[in-house]
Amino acid sequence: AHYKSEADVGNAIAEAIQSGLVKREELFITSKASNHGHVVEACKSSLKKLQLDYLDLYLVHYPLATKHSGVGTTASLLDENKVLDIDVTVSLETTWHDMEKTVDLGLVRSIGLSNYELFLTRDCLSYAKIKPQVSQFETHPYFQRESLVRFCKKHGVVPMAHTPLGGATANVKAFGSISPLEDPVLIGLAKKYQKSVAQIALRWNIERGTPVIPKSSKVERLKENLEILNFKLEKEDI
Known about the structure:
This protein is an alpha/beta fold and 238 residues long. The protein is 39% helix and 11% strand.
């Protein structure tokens, strides 16, 4: 919802189903809740835009409640003075119980977390009536977050990697370091396995049991991403 892509995605899904290309049950569709305090309404808004009766997975986008600016929109986290400006009247526990309501209402099959650190994940497990099935967070060879990955697995929560290629140029600009895709070790492994550096980085997460969701709009990159399932890294290279 935050990225305002649901209407376009909904049109594509509807066209694919109507043409007989796929059936709804063959798709696994995820969206995220950004409207803390208005979760059920936000979920219904997403379903309407996606032209669906239910979501397979619904995630809390961030463990922060922005000031409410209307269902389907997200206010800035900063005020005019660049100071954090969030709604302190809405707790994460309240948000999670609202997420559980979307399951009870049949709007959603499973619920989960996004961008939650280890201790916030632990807190959620302590008050959840319906346990989060997935926790999605940034992790890649330069940001391994092994403690969080292991904690999630221990408690039956699937750790899922967003930004699994390290953010490329965005992280270079933000932190002044090279991109993981320019790392000499990864480049060497790419030559060893005759794969791209991106495929090595993605396969590294797969090998440790962390599903990846790389983003690309290029057909050749989408195909390349799928091909990470066709090889394995040797233990010494992981």
